[in-house]
Design brief:
about 425 residues, 5-stranded mixed β-sheet, 12 helices, globular
Length: about 425
Amino acid sequence: MWQKLILTAGSDSQNDIFKKQLSLISTEKYCEAVEVVTDESPGIRIGSGGATLSIIRRIFDEQKYKDLEGTKILLLHSGGLSQRMPHLSAYGKAFGTLTNNSTILETKLEIYKNDLIGKLPQTGGIMITASDVIEKMSSMKSVKSSEADIVIFGHLSSLEVGTQHGVFVMDEKSGQLKCVLQKASEEEMKIEGAIREDGMVVTDSCYFMSWKFCKRLLKNPLFKTPITEELCCYGDFMRPMGYAPKLDYLQNSSPKLKLYRKALTEVFIDPNVEISILGENSFFHFGTYQEFVESLLPESPFRHSFPSLFKSNIVHSEGINTIPESSFIEYSTGVDLEVGENCISSGIDTGSLKIKLPSNTVIFTMSLQMKKYVTIIIKIDDDIKKKREVVRWNRHDTRIDGKSLGNITSMEKWYDRDGIQSNFNL
């Protein structure tokens, strides 16, 4: 069992809604305590790396090092605006519903309970992971060395996937980590020897750091005060690792960012690293609608890897009996709703109306302040992060020029962050 589960929040209002969502699920069998922590630098984007450093410093401020020994804490990076899946922007990616009728968070906690926590070093440490990812951990073996500073988890992925992630370059003979590439081109992966004989690459994922290593990390004065630059807990932490790291990225940084990155390099350049490669089809990202829809299909790698996680693509809904295999409906009601292929419906009550939802459509309802609601319809592949000089809604000026639709669905003053679930007691 985790001694504590920590979720990060980007603002105080997001912190409040995460706490409300957590009150709706049972975490007692997974962790002794749960905490939601708001980024400590208001108005400054500190990224997952800045949030990680802040959390570690907070832990050491609250507990003595000797008291941390043997304890295991799970840090779930859950802040952000969910702009690529806007129906989750009101209540957070971690609380998105899957086809097993459970949230991503609940599903992740169950997997970690069964296949991860008991195999981590007994000396204790902090496990760092993302809120919109499910990892298959069943092939993981117990960590060999109790002296491991960092345990990193790798997944066998295609070259295309490798261009969007960190890639571990391994020495063919010794199996040691040579270097870590970040969103490298296929040509760069080939030159650096990242491509395996089977044509796959080893991509990054979650990782575990010992308390001994965390203590060493905090010795740098730069990390003893609030972070003021945007850092990545993958790219900025992992790129210095390996016996021949590629550090040219340091020269392409602003002066202040370069200071942070150099400080991280000094610590991450020589830890005792153990790598656990979880194999193919062991990493599933739910960051876009397309990724989510693909996971629904009967022959999808996700369904194949987690057959027990599929119960129905109609969850917490009434009156809706049949929809295409590539569509998903949650918290909705209706007796005559016809749904096309590749559709997402969330928080919709069609009553007795006959409604046809065209293929490739996302429709969802948000609960506004003053007990009002707004229903939003977009195409599944719309780029809602695209900013426009003038933003109009149904031909009306929204007065939020220079922003995107994603900004609209994420602006706290526009809606009550209680979310739509409370209005569907199903």
